[in-house]
């Protein structure tokens, strides 16, 4: 596969001590890849990293993905809880230039439909701005099922979406920070953009 000019670069970062050490296989990156493949119809390029729960290493990885790989969107999974080793939100805040609190608030709200412990996630969202480029960085919880739940949202027993997930707002956010257009498969996730006519 070759990256073409104009393709959006998306960074996927799985933060897990045990997956990194090989105690269990990493399911975070595959779950992120699978969901993006089902949801995004425009061309994109993926940069993937599996790293341990280490603040310095998370910051270094995020800096590389923004500055060297020029990712416009970075999704992390894992390390958002209250345990001492959970340091993804702290590293993300250190790398970001502005916080986007709505994404994290919405993820915790959606996750409460699935687990009462959703409020234990300290997940954050930030924009990391450079003079000629910017990236949106979002923390997702580490449990692989949380990836689909937060990105896609809540469906009822008939499969009808009852609470849209956060991905619905991502394409417009990327446009607003100067990144490439993302088109989506509307049966999985409708990208919401405001109407051009202000009325
Ligand atoms: N990358 C991953 N791949 C597979 N399963 C994972 C992954 N990350 C988390 N999980 C699963 O979700 C559970 C909760 O995730 P959590 O991030 O709290 O793990 P943890 O206890 O911090 O350990 P670690 O950082 O070593 O994955 C884990 O116990 C594991 O079953
Ligand atoms: N959608 C969703 N959100 C979730 C969970 C989950 O299983 N699904 N687990 C919760 C739990 S138990 C914890 S401790 C926090 C932090 O998880 P992390 O450290 O794996 O990021 O996410 C919470 N948010």
From TrEMBL:
This is Molybdopterin adenylyltransferase. Its EC number is 2.7.7.75. Pathway: Cofactor biosynthesis; molybdopterin biosynthesis. Keywords: Molybdenum cofactor biosynthesis, Nucleotidyltransferase, Transferase. CDD domains: MogA_MoaB. It holds the Pfam family MoCF_biosynth. Residues 11-162 form the MoaB/Mog domain. One of its GO terms (molecular function) is molybdopterin adenylyltransferase activity. NCBIfam families: molyb_syn (TIGR00177), PRK09417.1 (NF006932).
